[in-house]
Amino acid sequence: MLRIPCPYLGSVVELTTEREQHIQDSHPDLLPAYLDQFVVTVADPGEVRLDEFRDATRLFSRWFPEVKGGKFIVVAIVSNPAPARRHWVRTAYIARRLVTRTVEWKRDSQ
């Protein structure tokens, strides 16, 4: 399991072996090729949106010019409430553009 520090959430985010395998199977263009950018997206996102279709899920995203000629990496992170208080990756993918969702936070300059 990979544990990624996430200042935005004030905690660590877990990428379990099962979820990593899911991402590799479903989005083979992302992992393992862009693992470093995946980690940066969690640790230092450009934007955080709410996923209205999945409870307690936020979509962390960041633009990378070196990813497939310029794309976003999007990481869906689930936050379990207290007392468990756990944050874990549901899935992740590469996107040409971001889907419309409520923006919770956006970096002033990207």
Characterization of this structure:
The structure is a single chain. By secondary structure, the chain is α+β, with helices and mostly antiparallel strands. The chain has one domain. It is built from two helices and seven strands; from the N terminus they run E-E-H-H-E-E-E-E-E. The chain has a seven-stranded mixed β-sheet. The N and C termini lie far apart (30 Å). The model has no long low-confidence stretch (mean pLDDT 95).
Q: Name the strands of the widest sheet in spatial order.
A: 1-2-6-5-4-3-7
User: Structural class from helices and strands?
Assistant: alpha+beta
Number of domains: 1
The average pLDDT score comes to: 95
Question: End-to-end span in angstroms?
Answer: 30 Å
Helix content: 10-25%
* Largest sheet geometry: 7 strands, mixed
Question: What is the gist of this entry?
Answer:
This protein is an alpha+beta fold.
Give the SSE map:
Layout lengths: L1 E5 L4 E5 L1 H10 L8 H9 L3 E4 L6 E8 L6 E10 L5 E10 L6 E5 L4
Keyphrases for this structure?
alpha+beta; 110 residues; 2 helices; 7-stranded mixed β-sheet; 7 strands
